């Protein structure tokens, strides 16, 4: 398959397709100026991005929707050119909440459907208006729900035409098997969005997903924003790794481009986050070279099992996914 900056879609198991490079839209809601996401998404579409990854819990889906609609109105793109991924948040797992939550996202975006809708995390929180419900002692309030029942409600949303493809995020093997082995399964997960980069290569999960035609969508492919509320500040920085720097020098590419190309050659979709024009362009310029098998093996060897986003504040949740090896 010849992928290019202009055309880099790969097939999903349900007959749809997904662009390999996607734009992440998360930024800290309290410190991000209004309009930042709107500007970034419009700029990204102008540059050539067609895959936009968002979520209701990011507090900026209204800006994403406005950007997409503006570019459609300008004639820059058609709706079918854009691939939008939305997410079902932890407080919305009860089956009766799934469709209303998706409909709220569609109303916010002012779009008729989303291309991919995923369960953001396998951990359910107490339903309600608070995204992060806590008790009087400040402890998170969890909720017991059946992931299979949640999935059945998502299948109904797909059958109703509200979403083209279904997927999950941060699911381990056991949680994927729970869905895949569900009696009466009508629509299997097409994707599993997880942290994936040269310091956390996830080989076993990647192979398991390959066996079941589930595409890995990798977030933090070049590291993270190092938000101290989520990320350990002593975590190693991928982009300073001498192996990536050396390979980059050979191809006249940045360490970030080498990291992205590595994931693409592994068959992963990559989510990159930037509002800088030059870096946005650079992140798409990974289709004019190919890493050799030896170079791929060298990057494989960088794996340190370093998970930047451990979400340790929720590690007591019965469905916390990261206690398992994969």
UniProtKB/TrEMBL annotation:
PANTHER family listed in its UniProt record: ALDO/KETO REDUCTASE
Keyword Cytoplasm carried by entry: no
Protein name stated in the entry: Rho crystallin
CDD domains linked to this entry: AKR_AKR1D1-3
Annotated residues for binding of substrate: 143
Residues forming the catalytic site: 58
A single GO BP: bile acid biosynthetic process
Organism the protein comes from: Hymenochirus boettgeri (Congo dwarf clawed frog)
Keyword list, A-Z: Eye lens protein
Record carries keyword Lipid metabolism: no
GO molecular function: Delta4-3-oxosteroid 5beta-reductase activity; structural constituent of eye lens
């Amino acid at each position: 398959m010849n992928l290019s900056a202009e055309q880099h879609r790969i097939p999903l198991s349900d007959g749809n397709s997904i662009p390999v490079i996607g734009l992440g839209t998360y930024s800290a809601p309290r410190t991000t100026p209004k309009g930042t996401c709107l500007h970034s998404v419009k700029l990204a579409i102008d540059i050539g991005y067609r895959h936009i990854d968002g979520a209701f819990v990011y507090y900026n889906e209204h800006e994403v929707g406005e950007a997409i609609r503006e570019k459609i109105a300008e004639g820059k793109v058609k709706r079918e050119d854009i691939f939008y991924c939305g997410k079902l948040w932890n407080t919305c797992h009860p089956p009766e909440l799934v469709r209303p939550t998706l409909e709220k996202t569609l109303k916010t975006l002012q779009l008729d459907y989303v291309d991919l809708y995923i369960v953001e995390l396998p951990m359910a929180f107490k339903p309600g208006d608070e995204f992060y419900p806590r008790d009087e002692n400040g402890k998170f309030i969890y909720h017991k729900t059946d992931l299979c029942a949640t999935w059945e409600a998502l299948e109904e949303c797909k059958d109703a035409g509200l979403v083209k493809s279904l997927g999950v995020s941060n699911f381990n093997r056991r949680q994927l098997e729970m869905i895949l082995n569900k009696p009466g399964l009508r629509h299997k997960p097409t994707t599993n969005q997880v942290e994936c980069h040269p310091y956390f290569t996830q080989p076993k999960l990647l192979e398991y997903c390959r066996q079941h035609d589930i595409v890995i969508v990798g977030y933090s492919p070049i590291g993270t924003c190092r938000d101290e509320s989520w990320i350990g500040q002593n975590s190693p920085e991928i982009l300073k790794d001498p192996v990536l720097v050396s390979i980059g020098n050979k191809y006249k590419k940045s360490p970030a481009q080498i990291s992205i190309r590595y994931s693409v050659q592994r068959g992963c979709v990559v989510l990159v986050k930037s509002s800088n024009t030059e870096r946005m362009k650079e992140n798409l310029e990974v289709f004019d070279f190919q890493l050799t098998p030896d170079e791929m093996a060298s990057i494989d060897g960088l794996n340190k099992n370093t998970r930047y986003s451990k979400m340790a504040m929720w590690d007591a949740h019965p469905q916390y996914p990261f206690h398992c090896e994969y």
